[in-house]
Description:
This protein is an alpha/beta fold. Strand 7, helix 7 and strand 8 form a beta-alpha-beta unit. The protein is built from ten helices and ten strands. The N terminus and C terminus are likely disordered. The longest helix has 18 residues. Helix 2 packs antiparallel against helix 5 and helix 5 crosses helix 10. It is 30% helix and 15% strand.
Amino acid sequence: MTLESLNTRLVRILLVVCVCVPAATNAAEINCTGESSLSSVISCVKSSIQPKDTELYSTVNDEATHSQFYSLIQNITERKVCEVSLPSALSAIFKTKNYIEDSTTYCIIYTYQDVNVDGYFDDGHGVYIINMEVSPAPLSVVVPHPLYDTNTPALGIEVFSSLKGHVFSIAGAHRHTNDVTSLCQSSYKAADSVHNIDNFFFTFHRAIHDILSTLPHVQFHSMGSSTCPGVDVFISSGFSGQPNTTSPAMTIINAAATSHPEWDVAYPEATNANGCNLYGTGNTIGRMMNAVPTRDVCTVAADKSTALASSIFVQVELKWDYRSAVDWIPIMTTAFPRPAEEGGCTSFPLESGYR
């Protein structure tokens, strides 16, 4: 072998080595905002949510960080400005991006870090979407248990997207990600988004509620086939009493009964409830929205006599065959029609996706 051919072979070997060894990096990111639809965005998010029994979740106990997040959410909601500079405590956890779907602009606030490149968010603190238009449908759609309550992520985002709702949120960790017990409510785990307050999920909804106090808040949950015998769908306002006749909960109940008279839709104190008690009385967000002070939501249930007249909280419990967006989009469209836009301006279609 000549010296020239030997050199050529060495160069080729070195090139192969260079290609095969990955470039050094300090961190990896999970970014789902490049997907072509909001449904695809949330499908991508769901695949990266911290799974059960992985001990990946960490609580957020720093009051200053919660205060910064609270202000961020209120500023985005009120000023309709999404891509802003975040303080260092938040920028290490969240990013913000404008996203356009069907000529509607949304702001996505999303957790992104995956430093150990295991495919799951390092910070299981959720993803939040705010409609940036002037007249969104008056609805907050919430998915608090995206892995435990199967099919609720797809149901929630498709309802939100179809209605062009005001706010959407999805938790970033399985409710049993960590084995440690919740310091807020000892019957639940630390990663359960709606049985704790040391998480951004609670702070997000507190910020929204403080400026949009009448915005209906609808949480989609699932129940097992043997739970609540004879009941297909159970809807409550977060307490054991029958929802007010003018409440969002009763509005949904009536719309569901009209769209699907074959369903057994029940609520607290209804004759067809058959003893079902999935009232959501321990839900910390529900308690806050039902007039329990934030400092007390871990330990104090809502007083139905106080909350009844003004409750905007809705807990929807669904059995397996009743979690289809095809069924729920007409129900929710009837219950929460989008306000007519002012000015009569012509809307030109824009390509969906991140902008």
